[in-house]
Amino acid sequence: MKVGFIGLGRMGRGMALNLQKAGHDMVVNDLSVDSAQEFLDAGASWAGTPRELAQQCGIVFTSLPTPADVKRVGLGPDGLVEGLAPDSVWVDLSTNSVDVVRELSGFLAEKGAYFIDAPVSGGPAGAASRKLAIWCGGDEAVYHRCKPFLDAMADQPRYIGAIGGGTIAKLVNNMASTAIISVLAEVLTMGVKAGLEPGPLWEAIRTGAAGRMRMYDNIGRRFMQAKYDPASFALRLVHKDASLALQVGRDFGVPMRLCGLVESDIREALNRGWGERDSQSYLALQQERAGVEPFRLSPEEVDRILADL
Description:
It comes from Paracoccus denitrificans (strain Pd 1222). This protein is of the alpha/beta class. The protein has 2 domains: 3-169, Rossmann fold (3-Layer(aba) Sandwich), CATH 3.40.50.720; 208-306, N-(1-d-carboxylethyl)-l-norvaline Dehydrogenase, domain 2. The protein is built from 14 helices and 9 strands. Helix 1 (10-21) runs parallel beside helix 7 (123-129) and helix 11 runs antiparallel to helix 12. The longest helix has 29 residues, at 165-193. It is elongated and about 65 Å long. The model has no long low-confidence stretch (mean pLDDT 93).
């Protein structure tokens, strides 16, 4: 089966090269044939339009900057949808919007073809080295048909759920990473303005309890199991620490908006009488506001997930 790849930019180039290195017969397309020369020299074919590429391939990958670019390549003049045959698969590796991937999936279904939303996490270096996560949404059987190709590009491909599932997972990941980094920027600014050097401060906090963990591991033992009693560290104590940190910010004139919002949530939980519960118990307020039942993973399931990487 010929494999099509559209979008040979910073992310796409590494993934497409790994597909080609795995021995797949490649057809490529990009804004300029010059950007594909490395692939053509190694035996790939050039397609002048997405439609022409789709007509030659049973599976097509796209890696594009924006949802608008994905729609243009798929639905525009000489787009992929015009060339895809029944039972072929379009796997979109872009960070897309949920509405767009569901719309595109509907268009392909009318032709008897399949769409998999499969955004990636790992950056250009991960794309080049194959140290990459790919989170896939769509038909599960179709995902398993695609998995040998995904394995050529990533060490952590996985099926998340129905169409849009991969996109939702990617947006959760990126928003969480962004928020965590923003909080780190706040507290490091506070520490430096209070008199510390940034290098030693950052080095020090990386050796603390949270710094030694993978970024998302810490919520597994408490929040993901709705297990707040007995506390490993009491909520009243984390409120003391947060209040003291905010006081340093005030003393040195450092705005700490994000941390202030966190402290107000902790204070709300204290007002409910949760002071002796675990320090993560205030996170349950978010589930309550969202109308989501508490997560109740078993300890065994948490152990399995934490041991997976």
